[in-house]
């Protein structure tokens, strides 16, 4: 004989949040940092084909931690949203703020509707401006809230520890090589504080580079260029941050 | 509920009423789900990497081919773009166009731009109804970019050429009423490591052209000029000079094609696509070429002479 039991709304929401957080924490973390010429995305990703970072529009990039099929769906939805908006109005009318809003509404609706399983994803939407002051970084947790971030942000499993590490060390106006080094240091710290080595092949790196002459500012950094950036020591990096030939 | 009501004799009118009511009710709900700001289901449904496929599912009215034309007599007067030429050379391809748009016997625009980058390794030049052509190019650029972003890889050059073919075909209804769009598509094939040219007819028929091609009202004269001047071992500089010569000859004999306008500083648009990607010559570079061609034509108005035998 069963008695219908009552679950308070607070408890139901807390359970859903717990479920989503656990799912996100299973994945590896990734970080997004501002540097002098733009925004850099760095993450540990053993796969060459399944990307964590991607281009949404001219100046807008996307990063996601959590369940691949769910954030891939959101990514394609974002590309469709941005392209449709740019086609209906103008390319300048596609903004990170608008996109972040749509993602927040989508995640929020799914999170609070009892019929759907909450998405186990945490997103970052970043837009590079003409100057560092114009850069925008939004973090979108699983529940549909939006956090406006500055300087650096980390999402994924070990996010809190990594972001406090980054907050202490990140400075405005870092070169690309400096920012990349800091990101890799932050990512390679384990929860118990020990440092491990992440080889360059396991890193996924992409930039939104405001100095790129093309209107599409997103670019993946792979192969030799990534190796060179990781090797240079922080002091002599001015030349490295300049536009390098595309390696496709 | 209404089915039982409809089962009764004499309630036919009532049934129709509820039927309509039910439909409009459903539309209301859909409009509301858009209003919340959540991405509609169509956005999150996995499927095609084509932006046009997405549009035809989600907002078919935005697709140029789906527009209904009112019945009308005769030809619609609208600005028409004229001559586009393309030449391959070892290492790439050059695509160029004159700057004139005409409407009947009137020059509608002196400085129209008719050559556009389609993506990093291809470009499209348009002859025909300017308004429709510019819209087609905009959608074509977006189609290629959308595929690249969703799939993470570029379409093959053949794939791009086929996509353009589909778009021209969807414009056939307009073309029958005199609003044709006939582009020339050129690109660098990174797989085969050479420049390639594709020409089209109004029905979307696609054919690959070798060495050189031209489209638009002055194309006959431009093709004649290129036939006599083309060589397989042209350098990039020679190829850009050749297209300006061909456009000059087209403007010489076709009233709808504009020659270099020295007084207003309006010169042909010349673009080069190599394995470094798309590059449009700056105004200084193209005026340099146009001026040197012009200087020689002052002495020899019909242009360089080819050997007789």
Automatic annotation (TrEMBL), chain A:
<dbReference type="InterPro" id="IPR022296">
    <property type="entry name" value="Proteasome_asu_bac"/>
</dbReference>
<protein>
    <recommendedName>
        <fullName>Proteasome subunit alpha</fullName>
    </recommendedName>
</protein>
<keyword id="KW-0378">Hydrolase</keyword>
<comment type="function">
    <text>Component of the proteasome core, a large protease complex with broad specificity involved in protein degradation.</text>
</comment>
<dbReference type="InterPro" id="IPR050115">
    <property type="entry name" value="Proteasome_alpha"/>
</dbReference>
<dbReference type="GO" id="GO:0005737">
    <property type="term" value="C:cytoplasm"/>
</dbReference>
<keyword id="KW-0647">Proteasome</keyword>
<dbReference type="GO" id="GO:0010498">
    <property type="term" value="P:proteasomal protein catabolic process"/>
</dbReference>
<dbReference type="InterPro" id="IPR023332">
    <property type="entry name" value="Proteasome_alpha-type"/>
</dbReference>
<dbReference type="GO" id="GO:0019941">
    <property type="term" value="P:modification-dependent protein catabolic process"/>
</dbReference>
<feature type="region of interest" description="Disordered">
    <location>
        <begin position="229"/>
        <end position="248"/>
    </location>
</feature>
<comment type="pathway">
    <text>Protein degradation; proteasomal Pup-dependent pathway.</text>
</comment>
<dbReference type="InterPro" id="IPR029055">
    <property type="entry name" value="Ntn_hydrolases_N"/>
</dbReference>
<dbReference type="GO" id="GO:0019773">
    <property type="term" value="C:proteasome core complex, alpha-subunit complex"/>
</dbReference>
<dbReference type="GO" id="GO:0004298">
    <property type="term" value="F:threonine-type endopeptidase activity"/>
</dbReference>
<comment type="similarity">
    <text>Belongs to the peptidase T1A family.</text>
</comment>
<comment type="subunit">
    <text>The 20S proteasome core is composed of 14 alpha and 14 beta subunits that assemble into four stacked heptameric rings, resulting in a barrel-shaped structure. The two inner rings, each composed of seven catalytic beta subunits, are sandwiched by two outer rings, each composed of seven alpha subunits. The catalytic chamber with the active sites is on the inside of the barrel. Has a gated structure, the ends of the cylinder being occluded by the N-termini of the alpha-subunits. Is capped by the proteasome-associated ATPase, ARC.</text>
</comment>
<keyword id="KW-0963">Cytoplasm</keyword>
<dbReference type="Pfam" id="PF00227">
    <property type="entry name" value="Proteasome"/>
</dbReference>
<dbReference type="InterPro" id="IPR001353">
    <property type="entry name" value="Proteasome_sua/b"/>
</dbReference>
